[in-house]
Amino acid sequence: MKERGNYWLRFLDRYLGILFLCLLFPLKQVKKWKGKKVKNVLVIKIGSIGDTLLLIPILEAIKHSNNGVLLTVIGSKNNYEVLNRYSFIDSLKTFEVSNVIKKPPYLFKFIRDINTREYDVVIDFEPWPRISSILSFFIKSDYKIGFKTKGQLRHLLFDNAIPHSSMCHETDNYVSLVSTVGIMVHNRMIEFPVSTYDREFVEDILKEEGLSGKSLILFNPWSSGYRGYLKEWGINNFIRLAKHLISEGFNIGITGTMDSESQAMDMVNACGKNVVSFCGKLSIGQTAFLIKKSRILITVNTGIMHLGAALCHPMIALHGPAGVLRWGPVSSSNTYNIESDFDCAPCLNLGFEYKCRNGGCMDGISIEKVIQKINDVFKNINKEREDINWGSHTYCEPVVNISKE
Q1: If DSSP codes are grouped into helix, strand and coil, which group holds residue 227?
Q2: Which residues of 328-354 are buried (b: 16+ CB within 10 A; e: fewer)?
Q3: Which of 49, 94, 145, 194 is the residue whose CA sits 20 to 30 A from 341?
Q4: What is the DSSP string of 159-172?
């Protein structure tokens, strides 16, 4: 069962989740924070790729907060491939939300496995799902913290609930949460490891396709999650943009999952041999290296956008319902944002509060505006290269660690 953006899982989480929260609340014994240095921490983060990438600097701060904390992370199928790349995570557990419904004993087996160790602190970084709060209730720990989010009731099972703000970036919410247990985050730069295998795999594909990085511009037109299509710019807009760039001598690559392959092939057929679809063919690590091999990435607000920012790669990010303040790319000086000028945009806080049933605010971003921004980016890239030659330190070097096999 697909978990990301699944309507029925959201429905059950809301109605059954609230019921379970209310049933478990009277059994909760609230513990006070004793102010001790933590040595054994469990983190819950079962969200998407983008949310998880934003959390990486915070996880690293937890790990190094007390001469090497033993860090256990509960992730999901959605973000496992990201979390599994970071060696500072001592133990990574995959929690399959759909199995809680399909196989009722699954939850109890999972909890039994987690509770082979007792934790100083459990930190739930999810802002709205009730299932992670319910899961935390059954974990053996001296102290449990999480977000108090308006209308979600998930805070009932925590020892300390920190207000989740809709007026700041999600990274700031994460930092506020860990600060309550004395963990300070001094570096918010996101690093993304890329393996030698991923690099060689992409090099071979580019060679087979006869593509050069100097002429390759990447499109990521898709957004997953609940009603993710409302964050998309539209295939016709990307087709028109591709035709313009092809006329300027560029080749176009399209990234995405296998679910996007059909629409990607519509773009290929509309534009000809100068467009190549990589949808469903690459892992997240291979996608990262493909981004680094391209001239520029043009993407809507989604996980690949945060990946491009983590790589500090030249990128144009298109924003509509999801705005820069709450969900924009961070830690990169090579990102160029274009926001819709619709009066009601942005409208998303947690990811499901769309004001429009059929969208439309992404259409407020004109192709002419995107083309102008591309020209500006190329001018800046050339200027930065000149600055490097003259010894300037203003150029943002890509953060790509090549991990050992």
Answers
A1: coil
A2: bbbbbebbbbbbbebeebbbbbbbeeb
A3: 49
A4: SEEEEPPSSS-HHH
- Rounded CA-CA distance 305/366 in Å is 19
User: Comparing C-alpha atoms, which of 370, 57, 377, 334 is closest to residue 241?
Assistant: 370
Is the link from the previous residue into 57 a cis peptide, with omega within 30 of 0? Answer: no
* d(C-alpha 165, C-alpha 153), whole Å: 15
**Chain position carrying tokens 């002429």:** 215
- Please give the full DSSP string across 293-309, using - where no structure is assigned: HSSEEEEESSHHHHHHH
List the structure tokens of 381: 């890239």
Task: Judge whether 246 and 280 are in contact, CB under 8 Å.
Answer: no
pLDDT, one tens digit for every residue, the chain (405 residues): 556 667 678 888 888 999 999 999 999 998 999 888 889 999 999 999 999 999 999 999 999 998 879 999 999 999 999 999 999 999 999 999 989 888 889 999 999 999 999 999 999 999 999 999 999 999 999 999 999 999 999 999 999 999 999 999 999 999 999 999 999 999 999 999 999 999 999 999 999 999 877 799 999 999 988 889 999 999 999 999 999 999 999 999 999 999 999 999 999 999 988 999 999 999 999 999 999 999 999 999 999 999 999 999 999 999 999 999 999 999 888 999 999 999 889 999 999 899 887 878 999 999 999 999 999 999 887 766 544 343 333 333 434 444 433
**Sequence-separated (6 or more) residues with CB below 8 Å from residue 28:** 137, 156, 157
CB atoms within 10 A of CB 222: 24
Amino acid, single-letter form, for residue 299: T
